[in-house]
Amino acid sequence: MMDDSVTQDLSFLGNIYQGCMEIARISTIQYHYNPRTLVYQHDKVKLYHYKSKVKKTHTIPLLVVFATVNRPEILDLFPEHSLVGGLLENGMDVYFLDWGYPDSDDKDISLGDYINEYLHHCVEHIIEASNQSKINLLGICQGGIISLCYSILYQNIKNLVLVSTPIDFHTQDNVIAKMFRQLDVDALTDLIGNVSGLWLTNFFISLRPFELVGKKYLRFIDNIENQEWIERFLRVEKWLYDAPDQTGASFTELIKDFYQQNKLIKGEIHVDGKRVDLKKLTIPVLNVMASEDEIVPVSATKELNKYIGSTDYTAKIFPSGHIGIYISDKVGKSMPMEIAKWLKKRK
Fold first, then answer.
1. Tens digit of each residue's pLDDT (9 = 90 or more) over 218-269
2. Spatial distance between the Cα atoms of 97 and 66, rounded to a whole number of angstroms
3. Is the pTM of the predicted complex or chain greater than 0.85?
């Protein structure tokens, strides 16, 4: 008879084998969404309109703008329990911008192009389709930077919601900013053109290797018999490694002007010749932060109120991390509910 230690070792090896078989399925996993329709496309950029889950209680459309750095699916990764689903359940009229997958032909697309060309055309389409003069904008992370700049340069945004959006890139605990300050981004983009999404994914993982590699996969093996948990895990893994490449021009601007020179709070950002003056942001602003965010620490965004001209400013902090804020049970449905409640007060 085998002793208990040998039995446990064989069981563990069996779990590892089963785990490897499960990981091999990632490429076959399909994204699922709340019901939506493609309503507009410009080059690789797509605009979706979601079908209402309940009677709309807010007639002003809300456009959700995620970062170009990752796929926006994280916002609707688990349709029954997602930021988008929560907004729909709270009566929001939701539109969703998908930046697509840039290729070598897109290397010269700049932040100005994302703001003045792609985002602006999407906003115009929504305004025309909804017969509204203004819409609400929800920008997330780097998508928040794009949305913030847009809201200053154009007069067709009624309310602005920002989630995990960096404002001051030189705070003491901003680890990513400190690392990017040493990056010779011109040499990088001159060498390879666009910046690989996989390279960026591995860069972010390298900030917390034990938690994002070792600890994560140990939990995976421990839960190998829990099929529901495994399916959720694999869907997140698919999303994590599905990062689009970054256009050389926009990535260079982001690193040099924002991370390295901190031009946003200095009032030195110019988009196609127009200055982005934070004091000209006078519309209502909701600034949402994650208390455990290591990508965009609270310190990098909490001082927004000091720089903008709005007299209607609200800050909310949720107990979660940079990605967990969209998929964790800790935040759950509370964040979309708070966003919807805030917007409904500002019709």
1. 776 677 777 887 888 888 888 988 999 999 999 999 999 999 999 999 999 9
2. 7
3. yes
pLDDT interval class at 6 (50, 70, 90): very low
**The token pair that represents 36 in the structure block:** 């939506």
Comparing C-alpha atoms, which of 324, 242, 283 is closest to residue 69? 242
pLDDT in tens, 160-211: 999 999 999 999 998 888 888 888 888 877 767 899 998 888 887 776 654 5
Nearest to 340 by CA among 2, 46, 60, 7: 60
Where do the domains of the chain lie, and which CATH numbers do they carry?
31-195+245-344 (3.40.50.1820)
Tell me the three state secondary structure of residue 225: coil
Q: Is the pLDDT of residue 12 over 80?
A: no
Cα 42 → chain centroid: 21
Tokens matching residue 121: 């055309």
Distance of CA 347 to the CA centre of its chain: 25
Is 141 known to be catalytic? yes
The structure tokens 């996993």 sit at 29
Bridge partners, residue 315, by sequence:
287
Question: Rounded distance, CA 48 to CA 139, Å?
Answer: 16
Torsion sign, CA atoms 306, 310, 314, 318? negative
